[in-house]
UniProtKB/TrEMBL annotation:
<keyword id="KW-0460">Magnesium</keyword>
<dbReference type="InterPro" id="IPR016496">
    <property type="entry name" value="GTPase_HflX"/>
</dbReference>
<comment type="function">
    <text>GTPase that associates with the 50S ribosomal subunit and may have a role during protein synthesis or ribosome biogenesis.</text>
</comment>
<dbReference type="Pfam" id="PF19275">
    <property type="entry name" value="HflX_C"/>
</dbReference>
<feature type="domain" description="Hflx-type G">
    <location>
        <begin position="201"/>
        <end position="372"/>
    </location>
</feature>
<dbReference type="InterPro" id="IPR042108">
    <property type="entry name" value="GTPase_HflX_N_sf"/>
</dbReference>
<feature type="coiled-coil region">
    <location>
        <begin position="167"/>
        <end position="194"/>
    </location>
</feature>
<comment type="subunit">
    <text>Monomer. Associates with the 50S ribosomal subunit.</text>
</comment>
<keyword id="KW-0963">Cytoplasm</keyword>
<keyword id="KW-0547">Nucleotide-binding</keyword>
<keyword id="KW-0479">Metal-binding</keyword>
<dbReference type="InterPro" id="IPR027417">
    <property type="entry name" value="P-loop_NTPase"/>
</dbReference>
<comment type="similarity">
    <text>Belongs to the TRAFAC class OBG-HflX-like GTPase superfamily. HflX GTPase family.</text>
</comment>
<dbReference type="InterPro" id="IPR045498">
    <property type="entry name" value="HflX_C"/>
</dbReference>
<dbReference type="InterPro" id="IPR025121">
    <property type="entry name" value="GTPase_HflX_N"/>
</dbReference>
<dbReference type="InterPro" id="IPR032305">
    <property type="entry name" value="GTP-bd_M"/>
</dbReference>
<dbReference type="InterPro" id="IPR006073">
    <property type="entry name" value="GTP-bd"/>
</dbReference>
């Protein structure tokens, strides 16, 4: 049989480490290699390299440029992933020096997002972010025409003309994409409004990429969304229903994972998607308990949540689920970052084995109870419609009937909005908030 599949490109992953780097270099290099593998690149080499200074023209000094060029030539490398943000000039000069395709961290993440987006909104968002990234790099394509001049020397040559033409075409494309996205976002806003009008609270799973959010989401809701041990397996928000141990019906959303140095183009493009996070009643921050740079990842997620005006500082209860607990050796003594007990609850889970999932649901139940109102209702024989409304819109914690009077007493957990709505909708039914 003839193999017609294209061979995987041979890649070199390079992590520059500046003098005052505030990250775990080994963990960051492993993450960068994982991102490259997610693009189906064959990573032959992955190295860190310390930097004393950053060269504005080529990022690396001449000595390192020559050393890396020799290594890439010897290994027949065709793609080099430089795990940092490169300027267009630096990227162009590195490609000239090494004679390979150079991708920086922003381009790498954008490429992964472009391959993984499935919904129309996701594809539009990624395309808009990609065009914004490419607009700053147009000069790379037309440098061979830069010095050509026409007429008496005062008219722009064909290089500059072509750049301006491309910029105008990109601007037109981006304007069209923004209009399409506005329409999609209006539709999403209507869906969110319908969910807010429904009686079900929203629980949003958030966390660093590849923390196991989708696997946990499938375990709790039975949704069957795509879940794999790779970065950014989920890009499109999915919402499914589930039930807490006390019988509260709720909705859970599985959101895109965060990452260190997430490109600003993507943060802006996905802001509408991430509004699901801001409007959730409860946030479940899923952390990879086996990650060596757990503290950094936790801090990164909290910073992104803060930029979205979400999280504990903005009145949202947060439950921390330390997932993948089954991957930690029994004799290990993990140094987990301690949460602020007033703002966080902590649960150890394994979405794969199911360990701790019931405790997580019980913790979510407790957090929802703290944000809800409990109503005590006495309904007569003619109040069947009110009783049915309570069953539809809340969690009935207790229900007892008096056989002599025919009166039914219900203890119901409702959202604050529904607790205020019930007396006005059924003014003849006696109801009061339980202390």
């Amino acid at each position: 049989m003839i193999d017609t599949a294209s061979p995987r490109q041979r890649a070199f992953v390079l992590l520059p480490v500046p003098p005052k780097a505030d990250f775990d270099a080994d963990a960051r290099l492993e993450e960068a290699a994982g991102l490259a593998e997610a693009l189906d690149l064959h990573v032959l080499r992955a190295e860190t390299t310390p930097l004393r200074a950053i060269d504005p023209g080529s990022y690396f000094g001449s000595g390192k440029l020559a050393d890396f060029a020799a290594e890439m030539n010897a290994d027949e490398i065709s793609v080099c992933v430089v795990d940092t943000a490169l300027s267009p000039v630096q990227q162009r000069n590195l490609e000239k020096a090494w004679k390979v395709k150079v991708i920086d961290r922003t381009g790498l993440i954008l490429e992964i997002f472009g391959r993984r987006a499935r919904t129309r909104e996701g594809r539009l968002q990624v395309e808009l972010a990609r065009l914004a990234y490419e607009r700053s790099r147009l000069v790379r394509t037309w440098t061979h025409l830069e010095r050509q001049r026409g007429g008496g020397g005062f008219l722009a040559g064909p290089g500059e003309t072509q750049i301006e033409t491309d910029r105008r075409l990109l601007a037109d494309k981006m304007a069209k994409l923004r209009k399409e996205l506005d329409q999609v976002r209006r539709t999403r806003a209507l869906h969110r409004k319908n969910r807010r009008d429904a009686p079900y609270p929203m629980v949003a799973l958030v966390g660093y990429t590849n923390a196991g959010k989708s696997t946990l989401f499938n375990t709790i809701t039975g949704a069957g969304v795509f879940a794999k041990d790779m970065p950014f397996a989920t890009l499109d928000t999915t919402v499914r229903g589930f039930e807490t141990p006390s019988g509260v019906k709720a909705l859970m959303s599985d959101t895109v994972g965060f990452i260190t140095d997430l490109p600003t183009e993507l943060v802006a493009a996905f802001r509408a998607t991430l509004e699901e996070v801001r409007e959730a009643d409860i946030l479940v921050h899923v952390l990879d308990a086996s990650a060596p740079d757990l503290t950094m990842r936790r801090r990164e997620v909290e910073e992104i949540l803060e930029s979205l005006e979400a999280g504990s500082e903005h009145g949202q209860p947060v439950v921390e689920a330390f997932n993948k607990f089954d991957l930690i050796p029994d004799d290990a003594d993990p140094d987990f970052p301690l949460p602020d007990r007033e703002k966080f609850a902590r649960v150890m889970t394994s979405a794969v084995t199911g360990e701790g999932v019931e405790r997580l649901l019980a913790t979510i139940d407790k957090a929802l109870a703290q944000t809800a109102s409990t109503l005590v209702v006495r309904a007569g024989t003619g109040d069947a419609e009110a009783v049915a409304w309570l069953h539809r819109n809340g969690a009935v914690l207790d229900e007892r009937s008096d056989t002599k009077t025919g009166e039914t007493t219900l203890v119901v957990r409702l959202s604050p909005e529904d607790a205020g709505r019930f007396p006005s909708q059924f003014p003849g039914v006696h109801a009061h908030l339980r202390d």
